[in-house]
Amino acid sequence: MSQTRSIAVTVNGRTYEKTVETRRTLVDFLRVDLGLTGTHIGCEHGACGACTVRVEGEAVRSCLMLAVQANGKSIVTVEGLAQGNALNPLQQAFWEKNGLQCGFCTPGMLMTISEFLEEVPSPTEEEVREALSGNVCRCTGYQAIVDAVLQVAAQARAEKEAV
Amino acid sequence: MGVRMFGASVKRKEDPAFLSGKGRYVDDIVLPNMAYAAFVRSPFGHARINGIDKSAALAVPGVLAVLAYDDLPETLKERPLPLFVQVAALSQPKMPYTLAVDEVRYVGEPVAVVVAESRYIAEDAAALVDVDYEPLPAVADCLAALAPGAPPVHAGSDNNVAARMPSKIGDVEAAFAGAPHIFKERIFQHRGGAFFMECRGAIGSYDPVLNSLLMYISSQGAHRIKRGLLDLFDLGDHQIRVVTPDVGGGFGPKGSLYVEYPAVAACSMLLGRPVKWIEDRRENFVATHQERDQYWDVEIAVDGNAKILGVRGTMTHDNGAYTPWGIVLPWISVATVPGPYVVPAFHIDMISVLTNKVPATPVRGAGRPQAVVVMERLMDRVALELGLDPAEVRRRNFIQPEQMPYKVGLIFRDGRPVTYDSGDYPACQAAALDAIGYEGFRARQEKARQEGRYIGIGIGNAVEGTGLGPYEGATVRVATNGRLVVYTGATPQGQSHKTTLAQIAADHFGVGIDDISVETSDTATISLGVGSFAARTAVNAGSSVHLAATKVAEKIKLVAADMLEVSPDDLELKDGFVHVKGVEEVRKSFREVAVKAIGMPGFSMAGGLEPGLEHTAYFTPDQSTYANGTTVTEVEVDIETGRVKILRLVLAHDCGRVINPLVVDGQIVGGVAHGVGNALYERLVYDDEGQPLSTNFGEYLLPLAADVPRVEIVHQETPSPLNPLGIKGAGEGGTIPTTASVIGAIEDALSPFGVRIAEAPISPQRIVELLGEAALGRTR
């Protein structure tokens, strides 16, 4: 039951070498072993999206992935989004639009959306709602989150056109 | 400063931390030498425990302890959890012991707790605790539990009735005796659970040096949990401190005292180490309180003009196995039925029934959404039968603004007569109808039908008792370094208390919200607290902050007046200084004033002001203040698949004066989503033995981003006369009228087929089934 393996994982640009149980989930590795508690556990069955992080750029549920599967990979968590002490444009838009209340689903939302906006830079509202449908929020009714995403996309377009 | 904070849409103080992963929820807290707990829970709806073999679990390396009932501290063996809301009507008060004694009464009831060096080990070992259960007959449905010969939920009880309570207005028999029209409905409602994204959790940390217990608990009120633990452990007031850190949603059920909390405390005392327990989602589905089934058999009597003469009937409420909130939930349901309408005669007999399921306690709306569904189904029925427009039927029955304050004639669960303090219900409905374009709807509907599309519109009107007492407190202090802090027992779970309470305080001191710390829900910082539920914090804590800040600001002026040798009336506060009006350079800093106010060691302060720049206020409202709202929903129903698409949803609401419109809008929109879930998706399914069949988010559907509509909000603002700020509660107003509106809209869409809907939630399968029944002429 306690088979272990040594892994090296880069998280938010920093490389960690740790020995972990093979059964340890990636989210427990991040939260407990690395102390990166910004990633939250909402359901432990891959349904709610609260634990979403980006592994090699791809948004994944860290409750459904084992830490050993992340060996040699590069991960970004919510702690890696801010640019220094400044919130990034997506975080800023969440703040301005009141896209969060209790804040528990927020890290997963941010990670899901950050991938989505790279793939679909100019989404429609319907596309945003579809993209968010793997992340559950019980507080906001999603509307302010959708508005935040649309605002970020619009800003990015405006900046691109201005260049 | 100079910009008024009260009423401004300022961004929330809480957010930068939450957005950058720096929130601190209970599972984020790690104490040195901490151990981890996992619970062994009943797999049966009802069983006798004949023995517990812990040996295999204890043999697992890393396991520190396995506790069953016999291993608990003496006081926990003597006492069940305390019941905080005992009323005479509750004939069978039932509270659990910390761990099951010799009988389990719902699937998920804790039987033993395992503590280990890691959570993984604790869960491994919990699976090895061998409990010898002897299954007993169980009953899962509240009507079945009332039937003669039904098995008792608690072995040895004569029956399963937890409470009966009649609620009456006027002479209902006379009202019905001469009524030209009487219509009868049987309405079934189920209300699912809270399903906050952060499951429950607790850390117990016993300090043997001070013989004291510190607990971090994800709750809706640290002070009530402390009160329960004081009763259970027989410790002194100074020996228990409960702190609630950031909370990932509450919606009601985190307001209860749960058995896991004293269990975790007992583990920490036994081991002399901090012990953490975090509920997983599967536990959350079986162990966190839920709302539950209600069966309503009701009749309405109206005159020839569709004016209500009376409402009568019975309501059977599924309480679950224990009664931690007494009869609060069904009581609120019944008292909410009359809503915004004049109901001259009323008689509903409420029966609250024990079943072999996890206890039912309030979830956002707390029994009110069901009441609104009942009344609005009756209004729609009257409209249908008399051939009138549903909006017109409601219009003819509204309480008029000039009738305020309006005595409904019932007693609310705050113990006071239901007396609506203010509000303009006709205007609220009119505003919502106007916003959605109700006038043109029938033409749109007709056109859609010609295209083979079935659209419908539904109205939900609600009046909601908010701001329930007894009180919430606030201490406002200027520390000797000049820093401002507000301490309160209010316990945010996403409602933005830290921002809104800072807004209220800020105006008194002429500062911004970031200049004020708001420290919530720590029993060490303020002696009394009630917590955040029942849309009560803005009213209670907000008023207390206002009262305390007023006093402290006055005192700053008094002390500074003495220092500056001017009249206090000539002073004003701004940006951390108190200065002479018009002469900003003649001033003292808050720090200087605070230092002056505490005196110097050994020097006399006799004859002066009370020491310190601080004041504690406990606002105690006379009664609830009543908010109101109207949801109007337009839906399209696919008659082949039963799929319901919400095309538009307008909510007009009145929560009195608004502290922060951004925050209120967020509460409303989020509340609507919950109401949509209750109308279309959320269903906790049990089999006849009380075995839960929906225990994950694949089986229990929460509304997702693609499921919920964009909510169009119309604001009305009728200040409450019952508190100094004119506030009413806003936390539940989105949920309460919405379910009724969606259900009404679906029925309206299907009116060509004669489909009647008397249940919530309603699934696509059920809609197709009802269409089939209607086609066969089997509908009522």
From TrEMBL, chain A:
Residue ranges occupied by any 2Fe-2S ferredoxin-type domain in the UniProt entry: 5-81
Record's keyword terms, sorted: 2Fe-2S, Iron, Iron-sulfur, Metal-binding, Oxidoreductase
Gene3D superfamilies assigned to the protein according to its UniProt record, in alphabetical order: 3.10.20.30, [2Fe-2S]-binding domain (1.10.150.120)
Keyword Iron: yes
Molecular function GO terms recorded: 2 iron, 2 sulfur cluster binding; metal ion binding; oxidoreductase activity
Cited SUPFAM superfamilies: 2Fe-2S ferredoxin-like (SSF54292), CO dehydrogenase ISP C-domain like (SSF47741)
Descriptive protein name: (2Fe-2S)-binding protein
Automatic annotation (TrEMBL), chain B:
GO molecular function, one term: iron ion binding
One Pfam family cited in the UniProt record for this chain: MoCoBD_2
Annotated InterPro entries: Ald_Oxase/Xan_DH_a/b (IPR000674), Ald_Oxase/Xan_DH_a/b_sf (IPR036856), Ald_Oxase/xanthine_DH-like (IPR016208), AldOxase/xan_DH_MoCoBD1 (IPR008274), AldOxase/xan_DH_MoCoBD2 (IPR046867), AldOxase/xan_DH_Mopterin-bd_sf (IPR037165)
Superkingdom in the source lineage: Bacteria
Domain Aldehyde oxidase/xanthine dehydrogenase a/b hammerhead: 20-137
Assigned keywords, A-Z: Molybdenum, Oxidoreductase
Xref: SUPFAM superfamilies: CO dehydrogenase molybdoprotein N-domain-like, Molybdenum cofactor-binding domain
Keyword Cell membrane: no
Name recorded for this polypeptide: Xanthine dehydrogenase family protein molybdopterin-binding subunit
